[in-house]
Structures are given as structure tokens and as C-alpha cells.
Amino acid sequence: MNAMSSSEETLKRRVGRVIQGLLDSGPFTQRDLATRLGIKQATLWQYLNGEALPGLEVLIKIADLVGKSLDWLVREETPLSPKEKEQVHIQATSVAFGNRSIAAGRDVYFNTKVHRTHKYEPKSGDITPEQASRFKNLVEGIVELEKTTRPNPKGFAGVWNALNRHCRVTYYREIKQEQFAEAELYLTRWTGRLKKGLKRVDKDRWRTERYSGVFGKAGELGLSKDQIDELLWARYNKGSLSDLTQRELEGFYRYIFGLGRKR
């Protein structure tokens, strides 16, 4: 192997280690990182394993993501130190979320991402373990409701982040006992809003099931859509299933299935 090949292989390994550092310490999945670099995931895999060397444009993007110079990226041969990995995490997360970050003492928040920088030490007046458990239960419930009712649901970090900002703390265990009632109310109102959304989702699902049932049974009976519309007009003076109230839709659903039993 000549000197040029040796140097290239060394650089491949170095770039692979930096990419691995991004995946280990940053906010990216392999797919996210490939998209950010403008390459295919399979290509990223080759870079990660030292099987191929990125072009200059991709190398520049990698350097930008880790907050380092291109010179640092291509010259430094040692693995990333723990401190460098922490810097990579903070820089890459900031880039990933458009630099919209909140540095707040013990935690560094990047939208819904939380980077823990110090260990929490209890102080006089902080919430009790029982109160902390209450918050955890509420947050778990909110996250489950978010998944059911929201197209872009908040995860655990997002909900905790919102609670901490509401209470002006950097970690929920720092919430003071005199703030407990206010914080609990904040989470219970959040839960209430999501439950209203869940009722709407359940109602929409119910209507969809009734629509499918009506048209499915009508098909079995040999009824066309025009005939269904005529029946709707005759019974309710309405031209569409979507115009029916919940009670009317349930009545029409039962009427159609009743036709099947009478024949």
C-alpha cells in the first residue's frame, strides 16, 4: 500500500469515527443524518464503516455539524474524547433544531431534546417524591394521549420541557412545593384538552365505521349510491351521510341492516 492509499484509509477511519460520534452523541438517526448530509443511507453506512470516503461537499457538512473546521476533521487521527463527544452533541443538536436552544443551568434544552449536564441535588422546599411520582403519572398519560390525538405528538422530553419552562426550573424535581398545585393544574388541563381531542377522534372513527357499514350492507342488498341518497332524502331530507346527526346516522345504519333482515 503506497503513502496516498495509507493516508486515504486513515482518513476514512477518522471520518467513520466522527460519524459514529454524531450518531452516538447527537440527535440524529442514520436516516436523519443521511438526509442532513444529502446522501443515501446506504452511502452513509459505507462512510461509517470506512468503506468509502466522502467528497469535499459532504466533508464540509460533517465539519459544520460537529462545529469544527474541515482541517480538524481531516487531520486529527485520534478517537473523539468524551468532552469532544459532548461538544458534538450540543453543536449537532443546535444545528438540527435551527439553533433554537435554551441553556438553563443543569439542563440544556434544544426544543424537545434534553442534554443533562449536572446531577440533581435535592434542596429544601423541593417537591416530595410522592409529588414527583404524581407528575410522572400525569406526564405518562399525556404522552399516550398525544400519540392518539396529535399528528405530531410530543414525547416525554417535550412534555417535561414544557412543564419545566412553565415552572421556570431546569429540572422537574426542582419545582417547589408551593408550585405543586399550579404545576399539577397545568398538566391536568393539558390532559383535559387531549381527552376532548380523543372524544373527537373516537366520534370520527365511529362515523367512519357507520359509513362503511351502510355502504357495505347496501352493496350486499344491491342498492346503488343514488338509491341510498334517495332513501336519505325521503327519511331525513338530507342528501349525504355526512349531513346526518349522530342519532340520525345510527338510525339509518339500523334501518339499512333491517332491510337485510326483512328480505
Could you characterize the architecture of this molecule?
Helices cover 67% and strands 5% of the residues. It is mostly helical. It has 3 domains: 3-96, Orthogonal Bundle (434 Repressor (Amino-terminal Domain)); 101-199, no CATH class; 207-262. It has a 3-stranded antiparallel beta sheet, with helices on both faces. The chain starts with a helix and ends with a helix.
Task: Write the SSE topology.
Layout: H1 3-25, H2 30-37, H3 41-48, H4 56-66, H5 70-75, H6 82-96, E1 101-104, E2 107-110, E3 113-116, H7 129-149, H8 156-167, H9 180-221, H10 225-236, H11 246-262
Antiparallel strand pairs: 1-2, 2-3
Helix pairs in contact: 1-4, 1-6, 2-3, 7-9, 9-11
